[in-house]
Amino acid sequence: MIKESPYTSKYHYYDYLDLLKKIMINEDKKTVDNLFDLQFSLFFNENNINEKKIKILSRLLCRESLEDLLHSTWFLRKKHCSVEMSKDDMHEILALAQIPKTPSSDLSLESPSCIDWSNSLSATINLNDHLRLIQAVIKPLFIWWIGNITPDIFVLYEKKKALELQITQYENIKLLEEKQPSHINPPFLSLSEIRIKLDADKTRLLIIEDKLKKDIQQLITIWKTEPIFNIKITNSLDYIKNINPESELLTPIWDILNRIPNQPEYAEKLKEWLLKRSLCLKNDKFLWY
Predict the structure, then answer these.
(1) Closest CA to 126 of 117, 116, 134
(2) Per-residue pLDDT for 1 more than 70?
C-alpha cells in the first residue's frame, strides 16, 4: 500500500506534464506517446477562441501582465478546452490589474509580477464536460499521483541535468588547462583536482541515471495498470461510473466524483479534497449540469 505523501509543487501541472514526457520519452517512446495521448495530448484548436479578447487585453495590460496571464493555469485550462473568456472574466482581469499596491498609493498600480492570476480569477467548471474534467481535475490529479508513486522522479531529473552541465564545464576547463595552463598561482583547480571531480561527478551521474531509469520503468508499469489514467475519456459520466481506480490513493476522490451527478453538494467536497492538496485554484467552483 502506498501512503499519501505531502504534495509540493514547484511548477503548475502543465509544466510538470511537459517535463514528465521529456523525462520518459527516451525510455519507451511508443508506450509513452500512447499513454500521454489517451488523456494528456497537448493538442488544441489552432483557431484560438480568445484571440480577439487577447488583442483587446494587449492594449490594456502591460506586456508582462499579459504574458503571465497567458501562461497561468487559469488561462491554459480555457485554452485546452476552447472555452471563451466571458465579459465577467475580462472585467475581473482589468479590475485586478488596477489594484493599488497600498491604500496610500492611489497612482501606483499593482506590479505585473505581483498578480497571481490563477488564484485571483474565478472559474466555473462543469464536470459533465469531459474536457473540463480532464483539464481541471484529472491532469493535476495525475501529477499528484506520480508524486506519490515515484516521489523522486522530478528531483532526480533536475540533479541529472545539473550534473551534466557541471561535467561539461569541468571538461571545458580541463581542455583549456591542457592546451593553455593557467599562470595563476596557485591555480583555481589543478588538472589532477579537475580529473578527480570529473570522475566523481560521472560516477554520481551513472547512479542518478540508474535510479531515474528504474523510476521511469516503475511508473510506466503502474500507469499501464491504472484505468483512471489509461482510458480515453469521451463522456464524463461513463468514465466516472464505469471505471474503478486500481490505486487506493485514488479511491477517496473517486467516491466523491461518483456522488456528484446525483448529489451536487459533493462538488464542494471535491474542491475541499483538491484544494487541500493544492490541486485546484482557490476560486474554482465545480458544478455538474
Answers:
(1) 134
(2) no
- Residue 284's domain comprises 1-42+123-289
Same domain, 89 and 173: no
Question: In this structure, are strands 284-287 and 123-126 parallel, antiparallel, or unpaired?
Answer: parallel
**C-alpha cell at position 204:** 554520481
Instruction: State how far the alpha carbon of 33 is from the alpha carbons of 26, 29, 40, 143, in Å.
Output: 11, 6, 10, 17
What is the per-residue pLDDT across 131-176, written as a single tens digit (0 to 9) for each?
999 999 999 999 999 999 999 999 999 999 999 999 999 999 888 8
Q: How far is CA 274 from CA 69, 117, 215, in A?
A: 22, 19, 25
**Is residue 206 domain-shared with residue 115, that is, in the same domain?**
no
Burial (CB count within 10 angstroms: exposed 0-12, middle 13-18, buried 19+), residue 29: exposed
Cα 28–31–37 angle (5° rounding)?
Answer: 130
Q: d(Cα 250, Cα 39) in Å, to the nearest integer? A: 17
For residues 211 and 203, is the Cβ–Cβ distance under 8 A?
Answer: no
Residues in contact with 260: Cβ distance below 8 Å, sequence separation at least 6, in sequence order = 127, 266, 267, 270, 286, 288
| Predicted TM-score of the model (pTM) | 0.87
End-to-end CA distance of the chain, in Å? 36
Specify whether 135 is located in the same domain as 256. Answer: yes
Per residue in 79-123, pLDDT (tens digit) is 988 899 999 999 999 999 986 544 444 433 444 457 999 999 999
* CB-based contact 227:246 (threshold 8 Å): yes
The CATH number for 67's domain is 1.10.8
Same domain, 170 and 222: yes
